[in-house]
């Protein structure tokens, strides 16, 4: 039974991936990329914690403004 090729990544493959990433992006750029990724994940999690009713109220107000401008 074949499940997934990603489950069987070994040490050699991980080393090759890391070396290729260093060659492509350089040593200075990788920490910046990871920092940006971390900020994005943090903002996403904070967005999920927000009150869903607050978003619905904002959308309703925006829709009313659009209707008022058209009519």
From TrEMBL:
Subcellular localization: Cell membrane
Name of a matching Pfam family: TatA_B_E
Membrane topology: Single-pass membrane protein
Protein keywords: Cell membrane, Membrane, Protein transport, Translocation, Transmembrane, Transmembrane helix, Transport
GO molecular function, one term: protein transmembrane transporter activity
Swiss-Prot/TrEMBL GO biological process terms: protein transport by the Tat complex
Assembly information from the UniProt record: Forms a complex with TatC.
Protein name listed in UniProt: Sec-independent protein translocase protein TatA
Gene: tatA
């Amino acid at each position: 039974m074949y499940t997934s090729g990603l489950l069987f990544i070994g040490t050699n493959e991980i080393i090759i991936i890391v070396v290729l990433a260093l060659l492509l992006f350089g040593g200075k750029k990788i920490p910046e990329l990871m920092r940006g990724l971390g900020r994005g994940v943090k903002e996403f999690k904070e967005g999920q914690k927000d009150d869903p009713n607050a978003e619905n109220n904002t959308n309703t107000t925006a829709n009313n403004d659009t209707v008022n401008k058209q009519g």
